[in-house]
Amino acid sequence: MEEIKDRARQALDKFRFVCPIVACAIEDGESPRWVYTPSADREAWLDLAFVMSTSGDFLTLFISGSGMDVTIVRSEEWKNLPVDIITATGGVPKEWETSGAELLQDLTTQMNKTFMSGHSLAPPLRPLDMSQRQIRHNVTLSESETRAIVARATQLGVSLSVLFKAANGLAQLKLNPVPPGEDVCFPFHVTSVSPERYLKPSVNPKTYFASSISLMPLRVPLTESLRQGSGAAILMTAKKIQAQFDKYLPNPYLPVMMSILAQPPNSRTDQKATPDTSLVKLPWRCDFEHLGMIERRISTRQGHININDVCLGMRMGTVMSVRSWTMHRKLHFQVEGAAAWGDDILKKMLQETIRFGLLVVNDAKL
Question: Residues 313, 325: contact at Cβ < 8 Å?
């Protein structure tokens, strides 16, 4: 066991050197920003950042968030930091003041609509206490189920990401039904998009796995879909979301949206295009993201050790998360949320998301 601990600690040390961005810390809740500080005393950082615990046959390794705030003297690891996303994608296109500003305005308009209205989850009955351990549940489809859902999604002209994003939206409506007679425009809040397709050939995409996302505004009217049966609803919703993906993804300005929004409004010429976060009315919600093929990011065989699954974690307070990824030809799902949600709600969210997604395979009428 000590050998495993030592090797894991060494691996985290090497990981920080190769990808120093993991040593970032969120400074405060009022104006959160990622800050990196070089460190030469690696042992001091590891003492705070690395925790290992055992329970029966299970071994759990933790990277402590509090350990990411160690500030010591400069080292050579900073040379491995990725360049900023604007540089990595070739700079802001020349037409930013026209076409780029239009996309930014569209994004902020959608975000403000999301903050002010829309349908989401009811708050949990228990108070939020982030000192409690997060709850996670995982489900893995078989290889045959995965092949069937991939083939069906391809046949329908939608991606796996879009299909299960639609499924998750319908699952939220199932858990928190729409009042009779109301028209529903379901906000998919801020959908994160990998910048990989926009990176210059000289840029290593693996260095951007956890350090950069862009934003895409999605807002889907579901009133018409809800009048249909469940199978028709998932197909109609997925088609609407795919149309918005197809609209935004080719836009050359999409990968720099996060960077532009992170700038102080008074430093931009488009001060009106700024989300008004004081209007947030829907803090209790579920976000869904599809992470793609894990094997594209990490090697699943390390010496004599085979990595058969991964577990992800992110403490998001009032937001529960449903994630999916493929690994070893199987589709994996995970739900995670604060203890305030409770096991039952989290399990139901995951089950309903998967059920709605699989309807395109199981419903012969579609």
Answer: no
